[in-house]
Write a structure and sequence with these properties.
Chain lengths: ~130, ~150
């Protein structure tokens, strides 16, 4: 599959992805499973680390867990969109109630994928954000 | 105390987890009620619950099962830290998914993990837990739900 060019990418540049999850297993899974040849520019284990990595790597897209120590994903989403309104944020969370999904979108997330998920579901969710 | 339909939420959440994340369904045994701290396996992921309900959800599993589960997830790191990560993630996923039925006010903590010891979770006198036996690929684990 050819590399995907998308919103925010210049000619010949893959989209940059930052992965945020407090589980190392989950971060590796997302990096390994995404088949759209996004360039993973960093990972973070909580919202504070995510902000640092975001400033350092300037990603086009972020996958964001919600239940994390120190700073949760909802608060982090608000801060990321203030830094870069054009960033695409896919929430990947075990929290399966509609109210949480609505709040995440109101804060600036662009998509929501519940855990557990298949590789296909992950790639479809990412592709939708890129369209 | 957990009602029957609420117990079903956790049973379905457990079934769904293994079917999707492990790509192989688990068999759920008959849930039963017990008083006092239940026995645990090698690793235990613990989620504290607050808000509308209070209590604890634990996922406890032996190292052997977690190793196979990691392999099914295409992991090749079977360290102590990865085992801890996995049990925490399983407990987190099942508890978070329960919000589909319990709602947003079923507030879940970040996972904490115990390895190889009886959980030192304080229990109120007389507090009871539902034990949900899980059988997966000849391994046994438990989901333990203790809610007021």
């Amino acid at each position: 599959m050819s590399a995907v060019r998308g919103i925010g990418a210049g000619a010949g540049r893959s989209l940059k992805l930052l992965i945020v999850d407090d589980s190392n297993i989950m971060r590796r899974r997302i990096e390994r499973s995404q088949q759209l040849e996004l360039e993973v520019v960093g990972t973070a284990g909580n919202g504070i680390e995510a902000l640092e990595m975001f400033r350092k790597t300037d990603p086009d897209m972020v996958t964001m867990d919600l239940t994390m120590p120190q700073m949760d994903g909802i608060e982090c989403i608000s801060k990321l969109v203030q830094l870069k309104p054009a960033v695409r944020i896919l929430v990947i969370s075990a929290l399966a109630d509609k109210a949480t999904a609505v709040e995440a979108m109101e804060r600036g997330a662009n998509g929501f994928l519940n855990k557990p998920f298949t590789d296909r579901q992950l790639n479809e969710a990412i592709a939708e954000l890129m369209s | 105390m957990l009602r029957e339909e609420e117990l079903k939420t956790f049973v379905e959440g457990t079934t769904n987890y293994f079917e999707v994340a492990a790509q192989q369904p688990a068999t759920i045994g008959s849930p039963y009620l017990m008083e006092g701290a239940p026995a645990v396996h090698d690793y235990t992921g613990i989620i504290s619950i607050s808000g509308k309900r209070e209590g604890v959800v634990y996922f406890t599993a032996p190292r052997a099962m977690l190793t196979v589960l990691l392999m099914k997830m295409q992991e090749n790191d079977f360290s102590h830290e990865t085992m801890r990560d996995l049990v925490g993630e399983v407990a987190n996923t099942i508890s978070g998914n329960a919000r589909r039925d319990f709602g947003r006010d079923f507030v879940i903590s970040v996972p904490s993990v115990l390895a190889g010891e009886k959980p030192a979770i304080p229990q109120k006198p007389g507090q009871r837990s539902f034990i949900i036996p899980i059988n997966w690929r000849s391994h046994s684990a438990k989901l333990i739900v203790s809610l007021t």
